[in-house]
Protein backbone atom coordinates (compact mmCIF):
# COMPACT_ATOMS: atom_id res chain seq x y z
CA UNK A 1 0.00 0.00 0.00
CA UNK A 2 1.16 3.59 -0.56
CA UNK A 3 3.32 4.96 2.21
CA UNK A 4 1.09 7.75 3.46
CA UNK A 5 -1.23 8.53 6.33
CA UNK A 6 -4.43 6.60 5.64
CA UNK A 7 -7.75 7.12 7.33
CA UNK A 8 -10.04 4.11 6.97
CA UNK A 9 -13.76 4.67 7.30
CA UNK A 10 -15.39 2.01 9.50
CA UNK A 11 -17.15 -0.98 7.90
CA UNK A 12 -20.57 -0.16 9.24
CA UNK A 13 -23.79 -1.54 7.76
CA UNK A 14 -24.40 -3.91 4.88
CA UNK A 15 -22.00 -4.42 2.00
CA UNK A 16 -23.90 -5.20 -1.22
CA UNK A 17 -22.08 -7.52 -3.63
CA UNK A 18 -23.26 -7.19 -7.21
CA UNK A 19 -22.13 -9.97 -9.55
CA UNK A 20 -22.60 -10.06 -13.31
CA UNK A 21 -22.66 -13.82 -14.00
CA UNK A 22 -24.60 -16.16 -11.69
CA UNK A 23 -22.67 -19.27 -12.72
CA UNK A 24 -20.30 -21.82 -11.19
CA UNK A 25 -17.91 -19.42 -9.48
CA UNK A 26 -20.44 -16.97 -8.08
CA UNK A 27 -22.89 -19.59 -6.81
CA UNK A 28 -20.01 -21.50 -5.19
CA UNK A 29 -19.01 -18.27 -3.47
CA UNK A 30 -22.50 -17.35 -2.29
CA UNK A 31 -23.42 -20.85 -1.11
CA UNK A 32 -20.02 -21.11 0.58
CA UNK A 33 -20.47 -17.83 2.47
CA UNK A 34 -23.91 -18.95 3.65
CA UNK A 35 -22.50 -22.32 4.76
CA UNK A 36 -19.58 -20.70 6.60
CA UNK A 37 -21.89 -18.19 8.32
CA UNK A 38 -23.89 -21.14 9.67
CA UNK A 39 -20.77 -22.94 10.89
CA UNK A 40 -21.28 -25.73 8.36
CA UNK A 41 -17.95 -25.21 6.63
CA UNK A 42 -14.53 -23.54 6.70
CA UNK A 43 -13.28 -20.68 4.46
CA UNK A 44 -10.22 -22.56 3.20
CA UNK A 45 -8.30 -20.64 0.56
CA UNK A 46 -9.36 -17.21 1.75
CA UNK A 47 -6.63 -14.80 2.82
CA UNK A 48 -9.03 -12.47 4.60
CA UNK A 49 -10.66 -15.29 6.57
CA UNK A 50 -7.69 -17.53 7.39
CA UNK A 51 -4.51 -15.50 6.75
CA UNK A 52 -2.29 -14.16 9.53
CA UNK A 53 0.12 -11.21 9.73
CA UNK A 54 3.43 -11.27 11.55
CA UNK A 55 3.80 -8.49 14.10
CA UNK A 56 7.23 -7.14 15.03
CA UNK A 57 10.40 -9.12 14.40
CA UNK A 58 10.33 -12.79 13.41
CA UNK A 59 11.96 -13.69 16.73
CA UNK A 60 9.10 -12.11 18.69
CA UNK A 61 6.82 -14.88 17.43
CA UNK A 62 3.73 -12.67 17.40
CA UNK A 63 1.01 -12.82 14.77
CA UNK A 64 -2.58 -11.80 14.35
CA UNK A 65 -5.43 -12.92 12.10
CA UNK A 66 -5.82 -10.52 9.17
CA UNK A 67 -9.53 -10.18 9.81
CA UNK A 68 -8.85 -9.12 13.40
CA UNK A 69 -6.21 -6.62 12.31
CA UNK A 70 -7.91 -4.95 9.33
CA UNK A 71 -11.33 -3.32 9.63
CA UNK A 72 -12.96 -5.59 7.06
CA UNK A 73 -16.67 -6.18 6.50
CA UNK A 74 -17.74 -9.50 8.00
CA UNK A 75 -19.50 -12.32 6.17
CA UNK A 76 -22.69 -11.39 8.02
CA UNK A 77 -22.53 -7.92 6.43
CA UNK A 78 -22.61 -9.29 2.86
CA UNK A 79 -25.74 -9.09 0.75
CA UNK A 80 -25.59 -10.66 -2.73
CA UNK A 81 -27.25 -9.80 -6.02
CA UNK A 82 -26.37 -9.98 -9.69
CA UNK A 83 -27.28 -10.32 -13.34
CA UNK A 84 -27.48 -13.28 -15.72
CA UNK A 85 -28.96 -14.07 -19.10
CA UNK A 86 -30.65 -17.09 -17.51
CA UNK A 87 -33.39 -16.29 -14.97
CA UNK A 88 -32.41 -19.05 -12.50
CA UNK A 89 -32.32 -18.11 -8.83
CA UNK A 90 -28.98 -18.70 -7.11
CA UNK A 91 -30.09 -22.05 -5.63
CA UNK A 92 -31.15 -23.27 -9.09
CA UNK A 93 -27.97 -22.00 -10.76
CA UNK A 94 -25.87 -23.64 -8.02
CA UNK A 95 -27.61 -26.97 -8.61
CA UNK A 96 -26.99 -26.72 -12.36
CA UNK A 97 -23.34 -25.82 -11.83
CA UNK A 98 -22.96 -29.11 -9.90
CA UNK A 99 -19.95 -27.93 -7.96
CA UNK A 100 -21.23 -28.36 -4.42
CA UNK A 101 -22.67 -31.37 -2.72
CA UNK A 102 -26.52 -31.35 -2.89
CA UNK A 103 -26.66 -32.04 0.86
CA UNK A 104 -24.71 -28.85 1.59
CA UNK A 105 -26.78 -26.85 -0.90
CA UNK A 106 -30.00 -28.07 0.72
CA UNK A 107 -28.92 -26.56 4.03
CA UNK A 108 -28.46 -23.07 2.57
CA UNK A 109 -31.19 -23.23 -0.07
CA UNK A 110 -33.60 -20.73 1.57
CA UNK A 111 -30.93 -18.00 1.58
CA UNK A 112 -29.91 -18.76 -2.01
CA UNK A 113 -33.51 -18.87 -3.25
CA UNK A 114 -33.98 -15.24 -2.26
CA UNK A 115 -31.45 -14.09 -4.85
CA UNK A 116 -32.90 -13.59 -8.31
CA UNK A 117 -30.67 -12.13 -11.00
CA UNK A 118 -31.56 -8.95 -12.84
CA UNK A 119 -31.78 -9.34 -16.64
CA UNK A 120 -28.32 -9.13 -18.19
CA UNK A 121 -26.74 -6.74 -20.61
CA UNK A 122 -25.66 -9.37 -23.10
CA UNK A 123 -24.38 -9.45 -26.66
CA UNK A 124 -23.89 -12.85 -28.34
CA UNK A 125 -21.18 -11.24 -30.50
CA UNK A 126 -18.98 -11.34 -27.40
CA UNK A 127 -19.91 -14.78 -26.07
CA UNK A 128 -20.94 -16.83 -29.05
CA UNK A 129 -21.68 -20.10 -27.23
CA UNK A 130 -24.49 -18.75 -25.05
CA UNK A 131 -28.02 -17.64 -25.79
CA UNK A 132 -30.42 -16.42 -23.13
CA UNK A 133 -33.76 -14.74 -22.84
CA UNK A 134 -33.27 -12.92 -19.56
CA UNK A 135 -31.65 -9.89 -21.19
CA UNK A 136 -32.23 -6.17 -21.25
CA UNK A 137 -33.24 -4.39 -24.41
CA UNK A 138 -32.40 -0.82 -25.28
CA UNK A 139 -31.95 1.26 -28.41
CA UNK A 140 -28.39 2.17 -27.45
CA UNK A 141 -25.60 0.93 -25.21
CA UNK A 142 -26.08 4.12 -23.24
CA UNK A 143 -29.64 3.06 -22.44
CA UNK A 144 -28.34 -0.31 -21.29
CA UNK A 145 -25.78 1.39 -19.06
CA UNK A 146 -28.54 3.55 -17.59
CA UNK A 147 -30.64 0.44 -16.91
CA UNK A 148 -27.72 -1.13 -15.03
CA UNK A 149 -27.25 2.06 -13.02
CA UNK A 150 -30.94 1.89 -12.13
CA UNK A 151 -30.51 -1.76 -10.98
CA UNK A 152 -27.58 -0.70 -8.80
CA UNK A 153 -29.61 2.08 -7.17
CA UNK A 154 -32.59 -0.23 -6.79
CA UNK A 155 -30.46 -2.92 -5.11
CA UNK A 156 -28.83 -0.42 -2.76
CA UNK A 157 -32.20 0.97 -1.66
CA UNK A 158 -34.05 -2.35 -1.48
CA UNK A 159 -31.44 -3.99 0.75
CA UNK A 160 -30.39 -0.88 2.65
CA UNK A 161 -26.71 -1.29 1.69
CA UNK A 162 -24.19 1.20 3.04
CA UNK A 163 -21.68 0.32 0.34
CA UNK A 164 -21.47 -1.81 -2.79
CA UNK A 165 -18.80 -3.75 -4.72
CA UNK A 166 -19.21 -5.20 -8.21
CA UNK A 167 -17.21 -8.21 -9.37
CA UNK A 168 -17.45 -9.64 -12.89
CA UNK A 169 -17.89 -13.44 -12.70
CA UNK A 170 -19.52 -13.77 -16.12
CA UNK A 171 -18.25 -15.67 -19.12
CA UNK A 172 -15.01 -14.73 -20.82
CA UNK A 173 -15.77 -12.41 -23.72
CA UNK A 174 -14.04 -12.76 -27.06
CA UNK A 175 -10.83 -10.87 -27.64
CA UNK A 176 -11.46 -7.33 -28.85
CA UNK A 177 -8.74 -5.06 -30.15
CA UNK A 178 -8.38 -1.65 -28.58
CA UNK A 179 -10.41 0.99 -30.43
CA UNK A 180 -10.81 4.75 -30.47
CA UNK A 181 -13.88 4.44 -28.23
CA UNK A 182 -11.68 3.00 -25.47
CA UNK A 183 -9.21 5.88 -25.42
CA UNK A 184 -11.06 8.67 -23.58
CA UNK A 185 -14.17 8.90 -21.47
CA UNK A 186 -15.71 11.26 -23.98
CA UNK A 187 -15.10 8.82 -26.85
CA UNK A 188 -16.44 5.94 -24.72
CA UNK A 189 -19.66 7.81 -23.93
CA UNK A 190 -20.03 8.71 -27.60
CA UNK A 191 -19.50 5.04 -28.38
CA UNK A 192 -22.27 4.08 -25.93
CA UNK A 193 -24.60 6.50 -27.67
CA UNK A 194 -23.63 5.25 -31.14
CA UNK A 195 -23.58 1.53 -30.25
CA UNK A 196 -19.90 1.16 -31.03
CA UNK A 197 -19.38 -2.59 -31.67
CA UNK A 198 -16.06 -2.51 -29.79
CA UNK A 199 -17.74 -1.73 -26.44
CA UNK A 200 -18.20 -5.06 -24.66
CA UNK A 201 -21.00 -5.80 -22.17
CA UNK A 202 -18.41 -6.14 -19.38
CA UNK A 203 -17.30 -2.58 -20.11
CA UNK A 204 -20.89 -1.36 -19.87
CA UNK A 205 -21.19 -2.97 -16.41
CA UNK A 206 -17.88 -1.45 -15.35
CA UNK A 207 -18.96 1.97 -16.62
CA UNK A 208 -22.27 1.73 -14.72
CA UNK A 209 -20.50 0.66 -11.50
CA UNK A 210 -17.93 3.43 -11.65
CA UNK A 211 -20.55 6.08 -12.43
CA UNK A 212 -22.40 4.90 -9.32
CA UNK A 213 -19.20 5.11 -7.27
CA UNK A 214 -19.02 1.32 -6.90
CA UNK A 215 -15.59 -0.43 -6.89
CA UNK A 216 -15.28 -2.85 -9.82
CA UNK A 217 -13.18 -6.04 -10.00
CA UNK A 218 -12.84 -8.22 -13.08
CA UNK A 219 -12.59 -11.98 -12.57
CA UNK A 220 -12.23 -12.91 -16.20
CA UNK A 221 -9.34 -12.33 -18.56
CA UNK A 222 -11.20 -10.19 -21.10
CA UNK A 223 -10.26 -6.56 -21.63
CA UNK A 224 -12.71 -4.73 -19.43
CA UNK A 225 -11.94 -1.93 -17.04
CA UNK A 226 -8.24 -1.61 -17.97
CA UNK A 227 -8.92 0.74 -20.89
CA UNK A 228 -7.90 4.43 -20.71
CA UNK A 229 -11.52 5.63 -20.77
CA UNK A 230 -12.54 3.60 -17.71
CA UNK A 231 -9.23 4.17 -15.91
CA UNK A 232 -9.93 7.89 -16.27
CA UNK A 233 -13.48 7.43 -14.97
CA UNK A 234 -12.21 5.47 -11.95
CA UNK A 235 -9.82 8.31 -11.11
CA UNK A 236 -12.45 10.97 -11.70
CA UNK A 237 -15.01 9.22 -9.48
CA UNK A 238 -12.31 8.19 -6.96
CA UNK A 239 -13.23 4.49 -7.21
CA UNK A 240 -10.89 1.47 -6.93
CA UNK A 241 -10.68 -1.09 -9.75
CA UNK A 242 -8.82 -4.38 -10.02
CA UNK A 243 -8.50 -7.82 -11.44
CA UNK A 244 -7.80 -9.83 -14.51
CA UNK A 245 -8.84 -13.48 -14.21
CA UNK A 246 -8.86 -15.74 -11.16
CA UNK A 247 -5.74 -17.85 -11.07
CA UNK A 248 -6.95 -21.37 -10.39
CA UNK A 249 -5.42 -23.94 -12.72
CA UNK A 250 -2.52 -23.58 -15.12
CA UNK A 251 -1.91 -19.96 -14.16
CA UNK A 252 -2.01 -20.74 -10.45
CA UNK A 253 0.68 -23.41 -10.97
CA UNK A 254 2.76 -20.95 -12.99
CA UNK A 255 2.58 -18.29 -10.31
CA UNK A 256 3.70 -20.85 -7.71
CA UNK A 257 6.46 -22.66 -9.63
CA UNK A 258 7.99 -19.92 -11.78
CA UNK A 259 9.07 -17.63 -8.89
CA UNK A 260 10.78 -20.63 -7.23
CA UNK A 261 12.73 -21.49 -10.37
CA UNK A 262 13.67 -17.86 -10.84
CA UNK A 263 14.80 -17.52 -7.23
CA UNK A 264 17.24 -20.40 -7.89
CA UNK A 265 18.30 -18.84 -11.22
CA UNK A 266 17.31 -21.99 -13.09
CA UNK A 267 16.60 -21.53 -16.78
CA UNK A 268 13.42 -22.57 -18.56
CA UNK A 269 13.54 -23.76 -22.15
CA UNK A 270 9.84 -24.54 -22.49
CA UNK A 271 6.57 -24.73 -20.62
CA UNK A 272 3.72 -26.74 -22.11
CA UNK A 273 0.34 -26.66 -20.35
CA UNK A 274 -2.84 -28.42 -21.32
CA UNK A 275 -6.05 -29.18 -19.48
CA UNK A 276 -9.53 -30.62 -19.75
CA UNK A 277 -12.54 -28.80 -18.34
CA UNK A 278 -16.23 -29.58 -18.74
CA UNK A 279 -18.19 -26.72 -17.17
CA UNK A 280 -19.95 -23.87 -18.95
CA UNK A 281 -16.78 -21.82 -18.74
CA UNK A 282 -15.00 -24.61 -20.65
CA UNK A 283 -17.75 -24.55 -23.26
CA UNK A 284 -17.44 -20.78 -23.70
CA UNK A 285 -13.66 -21.09 -23.96
CA UNK A 286 -14.06 -23.62 -26.77
CA UNK A 287 -14.88 -20.60 -28.92
CA UNK A 288 -11.61 -19.39 -30.50
CA UNK A 289 -12.43 -15.71 -29.78
CA UNK A 290 -12.91 -16.32 -26.04
CA UNK A 291 -9.91 -18.67 -25.92
CA UNK A 292 -7.72 -16.00 -27.50
CA UNK A 293 -8.58 -13.66 -24.63
CA UNK A 294 -7.65 -16.34 -22.11
CA UNK A 295 -4.50 -17.29 -24.00
CA UNK A 296 -3.19 -13.73 -24.03
CA UNK A 297 -3.66 -13.37 -20.29
CA UNK A 298 -2.11 -16.78 -19.58
CA UNK A 299 0.88 -16.22 -21.84
CA UNK A 300 1.62 -12.90 -20.15
CA UNK A 301 2.00 -14.35 -16.67
CA UNK A 302 5.38 -16.05 -17.23
CA UNK A 303 6.86 -12.96 -18.85
CA UNK A 304 5.79 -10.82 -15.92
CA UNK A 305 7.37 -13.20 -13.42
CA UNK A 306 10.52 -14.21 -15.29
CA UNK A 307 11.48 -10.87 -16.89
CA UNK A 308 13.21 -12.41 -19.94
CA UNK A 309 14.59 -9.01 -20.93
CA UNK A 310 16.62 -8.95 -17.71
CA UNK A 311 17.57 -12.66 -17.78
CA UNK A 312 17.99 -13.41 -21.50
CA UNK A 313 20.28 -16.45 -20.94
CA UNK A 314 17.69 -18.06 -18.64
CA UNK A 315 14.34 -17.10 -20.14
CA UNK A 316 15.04 -15.30 -23.42
CA UNK A 317 14.16 -18.31 -25.55
CA UNK A 318 11.32 -19.83 -23.55
CA UNK A 319 8.77 -21.75 -25.62
CA UNK A 320 5.39 -21.33 -23.92
CA UNK A 321 2.36 -23.23 -25.15
CA UNK A 322 -1.17 -23.44 -23.73
CA UNK A 323 -4.23 -25.51 -24.49
CA UNK A 324 -7.71 -25.67 -22.94
CA UNK A 325 -9.93 -28.55 -24.03
CA UNK A 326 -13.67 -28.65 -23.41
CA UNK A 327 -14.43 -32.14 -22.11
CA UNK A 328 -17.95 -32.34 -20.59
CA UNK A 329 -17.59 -35.51 -18.46
CA UNK A 330 -15.31 -33.71 -15.99
CA UNK A 331 -17.69 -30.81 -15.27
CA UNK A 332 -16.06 -28.28 -12.97
CA UNK A 333 -13.31 -30.70 -11.98
CA UNK A 334 -10.47 -29.61 -14.17
CA UNK A 335 -7.39 -31.71 -14.83
CA UNK A 336 -4.24 -29.95 -15.92
CA UNK A 337 -0.87 -31.21 -17.11
CA UNK A 338 2.28 -29.15 -17.22
CA UNK A 339 5.59 -30.15 -18.70
CA UNK A 340 8.39 -27.77 -17.80
CA UNK A 341 11.78 -28.15 -19.47
CA UNK A 342 14.24 -26.53 -17.13
CA UNK A 343 17.96 -25.92 -17.48
CA UNK A 344 20.55 -26.19 -14.69
CA UNK A 345 24.26 -25.70 -14.02
CA UNK A 346 26.33 -25.72 -17.24
CA UNK A 347 23.17 -26.02 -19.32
CA UNK A 348 22.12 -29.53 -18.26
CA UNK A 349 18.41 -30.16 -19.02
CA UNK A 350 15.84 -31.44 -16.50
CA UNK A 351 12.06 -31.78 -16.49
CA UNK A 352 9.19 -31.16 -14.11
CA UNK A 353 5.78 -32.78 -14.71
CA UNK A 354 2.69 -31.61 -12.91
CA UNK A 355 -0.68 -33.32 -12.97
CA UNK A 356 -3.14 -31.04 -11.17
CA UNK A 357 -6.58 -32.47 -10.45
CA UNK A 358 -8.33 -29.36 -9.26
CA UNK A 359 -11.81 -27.97 -8.77
CA UNK A 360 -12.09 -24.75 -10.65
CA UNK A 361 -14.75 -22.92 -8.73
CA UNK A 362 -13.60 -24.27 -5.35
CA UNK A 363 -10.28 -22.53 -6.02
CA UNK A 364 -11.88 -19.36 -7.45
CA UNK A 365 -14.56 -18.71 -4.80
CA UNK A 366 -12.21 -17.68 -1.94
CA UNK A 367 -10.38 -15.33 -4.30
CA UNK A 368 -13.68 -13.64 -5.11
CA UNK A 369 -14.47 -13.28 -1.42
CA UNK A 370 -11.06 -11.72 -0.72
CA UNK A 371 -11.41 -9.33 -3.66
CA UNK A 372 -14.83 -8.19 -2.44
CA UNK A 373 -13.65 -7.49 1.09
CA UNK A 374 -10.37 -5.89 0.06
CA UNK A 375 -11.93 -3.73 -2.66
CA UNK A 376 -14.38 -2.46 -0.06
CA UNK A 377 -11.45 -1.78 2.29
CA UNK A 378 -9.67 0.06 -0.54
CA UNK A 379 -12.65 2.31 -1.08
CA UNK A 380 -13.04 3.05 2.61
CA UNK A 381 -9.33 3.91 2.62
CA UNK A 382 -9.80 6.48 -0.13
CA UNK A 383 -7.86 4.51 -2.77
CA UNK A 384 -8.78 4.84 -6.43
CA UNK A 385 -7.75 3.44 -9.80
CA UNK A 386 -5.87 0.13 -10.22
CA UNK A 387 -5.19 -1.59 -6.88
CA UNK A 388 -1.73 -3.01 -7.55
CA UNK A 389 -1.37 -4.20 -3.95
CA UNK A 390 -4.09 -6.76 -4.71
CA UNK A 391 -1.98 -8.53 -7.33
CA UNK A 392 -0.55 -11.02 -4.88
N1 LIG B 1 -14.10 -21.35 -12.75
C1 LIG B 1 -12.93 -20.84 -12.35
O1 LIG B 1 -12.31 -21.26 -11.42
C2 LIG B 1 -12.35 -19.73 -13.07
C3 LIG B 1 -11.03 -19.56 -13.01
C4 LIG B 1 -10.50 -18.49 -13.61
C5 LIG B 1 -11.32 -17.62 -14.28
N2 LIG B 1 -12.62 -17.83 -14.35
C6 LIG B 1 -13.46 -16.91 -15.07
O2 LIG B 1 -14.56 -16.55 -14.23
C7 LIG B 1 -15.69 -16.38 -15.05
C8 LIG B 1 -16.84 -17.23 -14.48
O3 LIG B 1 -16.51 -18.61 -14.54
P1 LIG B 1 -17.62 -19.70 -14.23
O4 LIG B 1 -16.92 -20.99 -14.15
O5 LIG B 1 -18.48 -19.27 -13.13
O6 LIG B 1 -18.45 -19.66 -15.59
P2 LIG B 1 -20.01 -20.04 -15.80
O7 LIG B 1 -20.15 -20.22 -17.26
O8 LIG B 1 -20.45 -21.12 -14.89
O9 LIG B 1 -20.78 -18.73 -15.33
C9 LIG B 1 -20.74 -17.54 -16.06
C10 LIG B 1 -22.14 -16.98 -16.08
O10 LIG B 1 -22.07 -15.71 -16.71
C11 LIG B 1 -23.28 -15.54 -17.44
N3 LIG B 1 -23.06 -14.45 -18.38
C12 LIG B 1 -22.38 -14.44 -19.54
N4 LIG B 1 -22.39 -13.21 -20.08
C13 LIG B 1 -23.07 -12.41 -19.21
C14 LIG B 1 -23.41 -11.05 -19.21
N5 LIG B 1 -23.04 -10.24 -20.21
N6 LIG B 1 -24.10 -10.55 -18.14
C15 LIG B 1 -24.48 -11.37 -17.11
N7 LIG B 1 -24.20 -12.68 -17.09
C16 LIG B 1 -23.50 -13.20 -18.12
C17 LIG B 1 -23.54 -16.91 -18.03
O11 LIG B 1 -24.89 -17.06 -18.38
C18 LIG B 1 -23.14 -17.81 -16.88
O12 LIG B 1 -24.24 -18.14 -16.04
C19 LIG B 1 -15.28 -16.78 -16.48
O13 LIG B 1 -14.95 -15.60 -17.19
C20 LIG B 1 -14.07 -17.61 -16.26
O14 LIG B 1 -13.19 -17.63 -17.36
C21 LIG B 1 -13.17 -18.87 -13.76
Describe the structure.
The chain has 392 residues and is of the alpha/beta class. It folds into 2 domains: 262 residues, Rossmann fold, CATH 3.40.50.720; 110 residues, Dihydrodipicolinate Reductase, domain 2, CATH 3.30.360.10. It has a 7-stranded parallel β-sheet, sandwiched between helices. Strands 10-9-11-12 form a 4-stranded mixed β-sheet. Strands 2-3 form a two-stranded antiparallel ribbon. Strand 7, helix 9 and strand 8 form a beta-alpha-beta unit. It is globular. The chain starts with 13 loop residues before the first strand and ends in a 6-residue tail after the last strand. The model has no long low-confidence stretch (mean pLDDT 93). Bound molecules: nicotinamide-adenine-dinucleotide. The site of nicotinamide-adenine-dinucleotide (NAD) has 34 residues, from helix 1, strand 4, helix 11 and helix 14.
CATH homologous superfamily grouping of the largest domain: NAD(P)-binding Rossmann-like Domain
Query: What ligands can be seen in this structure?
Result: nicotinamide-adenine-dinucleotide
Number of contiguous helices: 14
Overall geometry: globular
Sheet-strand content, in percent, reads 15-25%
**CATH fold assignment of the largest domain:** Rossmann fold
Q: What order do the helices and strands follow?
A: EHHEEHEHHEHEHHEHEHEHHHEEEHE
- Please bin the fraction of helical residues: 25-40%
Strand order of the largest sheet: 5-4-1-6-7-8-13
Specify the biggest β-sheet. 7 strands, parallel
Oligomer: single chain
In total, the number of domains comes to 2
End-to-end separation: 12 Å
Give the number of DSSP strands.
Answer: 13
**Uncertain residue ranges:** none
Classify the secondary structure makeup into a structural class.
alpha/beta
Named CATH architecture of the largest domain: 3-Layer(aba) Sandwich
What is the CATH first-level class name of the largest domain?
Answer: Alpha Beta
What is the rounded Rg? 21 Å
Give the rounded overall mean pLDDT. Answer: 93
Amino acid sequence: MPNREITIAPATGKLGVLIPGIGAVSTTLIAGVEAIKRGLSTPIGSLTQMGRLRLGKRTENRSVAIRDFLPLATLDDLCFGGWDLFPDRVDEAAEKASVLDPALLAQVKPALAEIVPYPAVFDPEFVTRLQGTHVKTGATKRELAEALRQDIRDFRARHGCERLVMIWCASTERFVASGECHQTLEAFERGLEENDPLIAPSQIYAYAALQEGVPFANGSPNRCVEIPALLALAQERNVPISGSDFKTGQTFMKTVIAPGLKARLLGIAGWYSTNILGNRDGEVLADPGSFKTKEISKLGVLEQILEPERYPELYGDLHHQIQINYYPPRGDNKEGWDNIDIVGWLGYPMQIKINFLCRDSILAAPLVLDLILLMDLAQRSGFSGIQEWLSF
